[in-house]
Write a structure and sequence with these properties.
The complex is a heterodimer. By secondary structure, chain A is an alpha+beta fold. Chain A contains four helices and eleven strands. In chain A, the strands form three sheets. In chain A, strands 4-5-6-7-8-9 form a six-stranded mixed beta sheet, with helices on both faces. A three-stranded antiparallel beta sheet of chain A has the order 1-3-2, with no helix packed on it. Chain A has a two-stranded antiparallel ribbon with strand order 10-11. The two termini of chain A are 23 Å apart. The model of chain A has no long low-confidence stretch (mean pLDDT 89). Chain B has one domain: tt1808, chain A (Alpha-Beta Complex), CATH 3.90.1570. Chain B is globular, with a radius of gyration of 17 Å. The chains are: A alpha+beta, B alpha+beta. Chains A and B meet through helix 4 of A and helix 4 of B.
Amino acid sequence: MTLLTPPTSTRFTPADLLAMPDNAGMELVDGQIVEKEVSTNSSEVEGIILSVIRVFLLTHPVAKVFPASLGYTCFPDDPDKMRKPDVTVVSLSRLKDLPEGDTGYMPIVPDLAVEVLSPNDVIYNVDKKIDEYFSAGFPLLWIADPIRREITVHPLKGRPVIFTADDEITAQSALPGFRCKVSEFFPPITAVAP
Amino acid sequence: MTLLTDPPISRKLHAVDVLRMSDNASLELVNGLIVEKNVSVESSEVELIFGARILAYLSEHPVAKVYPGTLGYQCFPEDPEKFRKPDASVVLLERLKTLPEPNPGYMPIPPDLAIEVLSPNDVTYQTDNKIKEYFGAGFPLIWVADPNLRTITVYSRNGRPAIFTENDEITAESALPGFRCKVRDFFPATVSVGP
């Protein structure tokens, strides 16, 4: 998380950010713009997870899957907070309940949020994000680690569990019937320039 | 991990060079370069609690020794001068007996249990890489303690990684036969310090 504006007394709102031209990797916390950590590797993994879920939804149209360009404004402690999980899933039945009109942001929590770790992610910031998501009522989080090729599943109620490359993972009620080998979420192991 | 020699110098340092430095407690040597371990108030406290709990157990069951984060392990085959300092570590007495000299400056064999306590500036990829390094050197069991989430993730060479939360009981497998402790007992009581 990099603070892009020197902390100022000016508090930005989600609407301000939406009006900015280059807002794809930006989030809003305490009225300040922060930039998400990204990397080649994590971007690739985001793309793979997105497409695996998308393929499942083609034959099982129960939800929509969104990339990291979608911001969520669903944090009761800070109505102007906006976070962009790397991949999210929202069930169609819950999307139907949304008020009319597109505000630019998703005002309800996703049924599944996926964060992919990148090289500059500080562990405590990841922990803090998990806390934030749970406080907002996110029911299910996946933290994907491209280095260890693992996914840690954090359910709102229940204990975190690590799924390793050969394990099969489900998305519980976010994607009924979905199963995938963890290794399929990660690129094949081929050497890429350091 | 902060690179202390900046810019990287061309002469690679040896483990013994660092041993002769006066303030070397939190320094490690990787590829001949000195790196400093990340620390924090909370992680320092947790390190000590781990040491104290294990020491208390060992006073009743003298099967091993426990060391704090000042002890360096120089046991990495791919980089013979490399040494790392796990925040706490346990070596069985029977393995200590096999050491060629009784009091080396660095431990030349991997510990039976290595413990790393996360601190606020630790980056996930670096921790991942450290685990990879430790396994590469033959460490059998690694605990990564997260004072923020109050969890311990157990990485075992022969098993799958598992997260233990506050109310779980943890064992140290063959590193400390018979040892059991509730995860929450390794973390300070939740009293807020500072702002």
